Amino acid sequence: MDALVQERISASFDGNTPGPSLSALCRNLLEEQKASWPDLSLGYEALGSVRVRELHCNGFSVRLHHNPGRIKSTAAPVDQKSIDKRPCFLCLENLPEPQRGILYREDFIVLCNPFPICPDHYTIAHINHVPQSFEGTVSTFLKMAKDFSPDFNVFYNGPESGASAPDHLHFQATARGILPIEKEIEDRTRLAFVKDVHAIPLFRAKNVGREVIIMEGTDCTAIGNALTSIVTAMKSVLSSPAEPQMNLLGSYEGNIWRIVIFPRQKHRPSVYFLPSNERILISPGLVEMGGIIITPIGKDFDIVNEELIRKIYTEVSVDEETIQKILEALSL
Ligand SMILES: [Zn+2]
User: Fold this and answer.
1) Fewest Cβ atoms nearer than 10 Å: which of 35, 132, 211, 279?
2) What is the 93 CA–ligand 1 centroid distance (Å)?
């Protein structure tokens, strides 16, 4: 094993060797790191003073979190020029000295996120500096969803849809059940069946203010094919030369994978780009699309209302016409 990897890992999970579950390893890592890495401990302490406000947006709810610790991520410059200039914060050689992780199935390392959004927040970074791209990682994503269950969900932010390190492949894991959308789509009356793709049923969530596609299944290969089919259809309809803009949430329970897809047409809403006195720093990634709206600035937290949330979702999510085209373009 590479010496750089060797010196950073405090445990490993390969899915075969008998031993503690990945959830248990993650929780151990977090406790160890809180004790040995002061900045992480401070990041988690700051969570205690996060202000929370619930907004009912006519059919769905979101929770605003005033979390100042997230400023770096929310305001991260993601243009190529800025990225070329900064050292990559997910590369092993650039991690803070006390940071350690769990080697996950050879190619990834599970790290504690020093700017958590909730009491358990992990980043699963590739051990090499390879670009954020979902192509080629479909089965890895599904394996992760299973390995991190039942305690955690895993998620993916596209390079132009909320990833603060679009140059370094990574996923994230957070506690299951924290996102308002999870509860909303558990109510089956809110799901509209669309069609079967590779024998996997596809649904759209109704009345949630943004487009949400949901797929469920027990067969890993079939669900992987269905997911690939959707990404391909989005790519062709959105005419993306690169990966289509999207956020993905994966969970696994009772032998069933559930994948939630948020197809996007824009990364940051127009209020993000207003002059500084009017600017509202909301930068939607999976967490925001899932219903937790992070506002690192106190003023924003105080003024954001239901109407603005609906407007932001309408702006960054694909529209009705586009979603119809995507669904029609699916290869079955
Ligand atoms: Zn890197």
Assistant:
1) 35
2) 9
